């Protein structure tokens, strides 16, 4: 039993890596199909892998040109793969004329990068849903399913997947400001589209919804955007490398302002526009539209809990469930487990996760994360009173209490005790 529990705790602690390995195995055949399609250019796509050969030979005709050549993260990763990972050449592939030297291995590098990105996105999205958003296992699996549908719709031969992976990393670390601000600031090395997307998101959060937490995120995105513009100007004008179709008066970027609106409207008139633009946009915003218009009416009749209804009865005091939750936390001390989420608690005490959340919100008047952090802080205070710090550091104590990192511990302690741990320790000494 102990061995089984240790194994389960190990899986939970490294759930993302475990899922990543599973997806690598499951989707390997999909990678081979995609690699073959990319070699034969079964679907037209922008040839980012030629930049690898440009780096190797300096042949300017193989440069993907700005702004594509300034999306450094994906370009550098595929170059790293080319240099350090052995090339996998498929059997029964007979390309009579190669577009350029080292075409097969350069294409393999790009295909492998996209394959790894796909597996990492899926693993990270599940962990983000299950651990960060505290969704149930079923809800997290549904999120994983729709994430797979969305990512499969994204172009598999370019740098889109690596950009989305970077975006998911930012979302995952939004609760850790120092990490997320650095990631947002470095977006100028990834993709200017992600900068625009996050800048709009943070603008809405900070200016329209008045959430001050997003202030520095917004300005980090703005700073990254300005850096991306400066790098583009330096590369194209000062260094004189130009940009895509820069010598053509009717080029894409030369007519961005004069014909840009016509191109947007053109999406509604063609099958390609509907498939590649309108449908993904609709798929992305539909959850928000549904959430906006499908709301529960907060009346007593809607809050009755019966065999088919998942919403608690508002008039019940839930004294039994409150006793179970309190007893479980005080005796079993589940809060000592890093990454504890509400779904795990629901399984252990056999109470629906939504009901646990409802009780904690209404009875204890706090969110689930604040609830478990309160227990963790109390645990740490007990250890402080027992002179625990004479033998161990405060950092190790916070880790023993279940905090994922020292910064989160400091923030939680200040929120609950209205003072820093150091101030609390000094008060104990006096």
Summarize the structure in words:
With 430 residues, the chain is mainly α. The chain folds into three domains: 11-246 and 265-292, no CATH class; 298-365, no CATH class; 369-430, Orthogonal Bundle (Arc Repressor Mutant, subunit A), CATH 1.10.10.60. Helix content is 65%, strand content 0%. It has 20 helices and no strands. It is elongated, with a radius of gyration of 26 Å. The model is unreliable at 295-315 (pLDDT under 50).
Write out key terms for the chains shown.
mainly alpha, Arc Repressor Mutant, subunit A, elongated, 20 helices, 430 residues, 3 domains
Helices and strands, with pairings:
Layout: H1 2-13, H2 15-26, H3 28-39, H4 50-57, H5 72-84, H6 103-132, H7 137-153, H8 160-172, H9 177-185, H10 192-208, H11 215-238, H12 256-266, H13 271-293, H14 319-331, H15 342-349, H16 353-362, H17 368-385, H18 394-400, H19 406-417, H20 421-429
Helix pairs in contact: 2-6, 3-6, 5-6, 6-7, 6-8, 8-9, 9-11, 10-11, 17-19
**Through-space gap between termini:** 46 Å
Helix and strand composition category: mainly alpha
Count of helical regions: 20
Number of strands: 0
| Mean pLDDT level | 85
* Share of β-strand residues: under 5%
Main sheet properties: none
Q: C-alpha Rg, in Å? A: 26 Å
Helix share bin: 55-70%
Shape: elongated
Low-pLDDT runs of 5+ residues are 295-315
Order of helices and strands: HHHHHHHHHHHHHHHHHHHH
| Oligomerization category of the chains in this entry | single chain
Q: How many structural domains in the coordinates?
A: 3
């Amino acid at each position: 039993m102990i061995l089984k529990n240790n194994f389960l705790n190990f899986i939970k602690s490294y759930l993302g890596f475990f899922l990543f390995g599973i997806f690598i195995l499951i989707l390997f055949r999909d990678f081979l199909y995609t690699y073959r399609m990319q070699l034969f250019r079964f679907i037209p796509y922008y040839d980012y892998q030629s930049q690898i050969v440009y780096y190797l030979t300096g042949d300017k005709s193989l440069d993907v040109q700005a702004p594509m050549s300034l999306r450094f993260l994906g370009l550098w990763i595929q170059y790293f793969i080319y240099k350090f990972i052995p090339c996998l050449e498929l059997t029964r592939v007979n390309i009579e004329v190669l577009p350029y030297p080292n075409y097969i291995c350069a294409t393999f590098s790009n295909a492998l990068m996209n394959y790894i990105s796909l597996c990492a996105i899926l693993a990270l999205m599940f962990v983000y849903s299950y651990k960060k958003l505290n969704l149930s296992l079923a809800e997290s699996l549904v999120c994983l399913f729709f994430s797979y549908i969305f990512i499969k719709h994204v172009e598999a031969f370019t740098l889109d997947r690596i950009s989305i992976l970077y975006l998911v990393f930012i979302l995952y670390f939004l609760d850790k400001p120092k990490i997320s601000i650095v990631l947002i600031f470095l977006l100028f090395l990834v993709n200017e589209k992600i900068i625009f997307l996050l800048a709009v998101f943070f603008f809405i959060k900070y200016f329209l919804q008045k959430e001050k937490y997003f202030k520095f995120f917004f300005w980090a995105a703005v700073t990254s955007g300005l850096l991306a513009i400066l790098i583009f100007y330096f590369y194209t004008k000062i260094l004189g490398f130009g940009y895509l179709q820069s010598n053509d008066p009717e080029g894409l970027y030369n007519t961005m302002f004069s014909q840009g609106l016509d191109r947007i409207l053109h999406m509604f008139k063609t099958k390609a526009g509907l498939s590649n633009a309108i449908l993904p946009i609709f798929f992305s915003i539909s959850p928000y539209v549904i959430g906006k218009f499908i709301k529960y009416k907060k009346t007593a009749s809607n809050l009755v809990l019966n065999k088919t209804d998942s919403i608690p009865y508002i008039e019940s005091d839930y004294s039994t469930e409150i006793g179970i939750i309190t007893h479980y936390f005080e005796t079993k001390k589940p809060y000592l487990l890093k990454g504890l989420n509400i779904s795990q608690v629901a399984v252990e005490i056999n109470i629906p996760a939504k009901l646990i959340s409802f009780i904690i919100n209404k009875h204890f008047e706090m969110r689930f994360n604040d609830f478990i952090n309160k227990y963790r802080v109390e645990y740490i205070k007990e250890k402080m009173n027992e002179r625990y710090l004479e033998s161990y550091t405060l950092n190790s104590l916070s880790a023993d209490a279940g905090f994922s990192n020292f910064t989160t511990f400091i923030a939680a302690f200040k929120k609950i005790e209205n003072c820093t741990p150091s101030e609390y320790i000094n008060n104990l000494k006096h």
